[in-house]
Amino acid sequence: MSDKLEVQELSHTFNRQEVLHRISFTVREGEFLSILGPSGCGKTTILRILIGLLSPSSGFVFKDGIDITGFAPSARNMGIVFQNYALFQNMSVLGNVEYALKFNSSFKSKSRKAAESIIEQVGLTEHIHKKPCKLSGGQQQRVAIARTLALNPEIILFDEPMSALDAATRLLLREEIKRIQKQFHSTMIYITHDQEEAFALSDRIMVMTRGSIQQLDTPENIIRNPATPFVREFVIDNLQLKINSLVKYVKI
């Protein structure tokens, strides 16, 4: 698998405070990479730099070997799914998905058919004429994903997309995201603070704290060989607590 994205020595300072410190990593073609860490560790700052909403203080971002550090968001061929869905409440499911296509010359002439096709592929055809207020949280998030997929981005970024959903809906949406990744052969970068979520979804996990990478490895290797005390405490110990709580209820 070749590298789709390469980040070199990325740093960012905000209000004289270093939010990212010389971050370097790669994302492979078709890979699902989770960036896992507590609030304030810098993971969302990375996402904003990757999509082009924020300029780094130093460092570079390469896609397919091309330096895109200074590219506008529209020139990066990446899509983003936000935590709060960012849907137009006055538009139907079809209207929300079709909206972005109308402003893209490649899709403009066939925006309706393209939108209907992608809505069918994410299993929302029966809701196609409903407005977001008539949908569940999980369905709204699927609309947001469909809208992103409709533009056929090379890389899809997720900004904690399940944090506002209940546990049962999160489990269903996890399966849906993995199905979509396989179906569309997408490269995905997923921001989360939830250890269980990261381990359920990822090919590799990048564990962060205080603006630096603690470990970047497969879920199996992180469990077997935590690189730092922080990884052991934040990842493994927290996962064990969740397992212990489940075992307690099973015994009852």
What does this molecule look like?
The protein is built from eight helices and ten strands. It has helices at residues 43-51, 93-102, 111-121, 137-150, 167-184, 195-201, 219-224, 229-251, and strands at 3-14, 17-28, 32-36, 58-63, 66-67, 78-81, 155-159, 187-192, 204-209, 212-217. It is α/β, with parallel strands linked by helices and 252 residues long.
Radius of gyration: 19 Å
Return the structural class: alpha/beta
Strand content: 25-35%
How many distinct helices? 8
- Largest sheet entry: 6 strands, mixed
Mean pLDDT: 91
Distance between the termini: 47 Å
Given the C-alpha coordinates, what overall shape results?
A: globular
Which stretches are poorly predicted, pLDDT < 50 over at least 5 residues?
none
Provide a brief overview of the structure.
The protein has helices at 43-51, 93-102, 111-121, 137-150, 167-184, 195-201, 219-224, 229-251; strands spanning 3-14, 17-28, 32-36, 58-63, 66-67, 78-81, 155-159, 187-192, 204-209, 212-217.
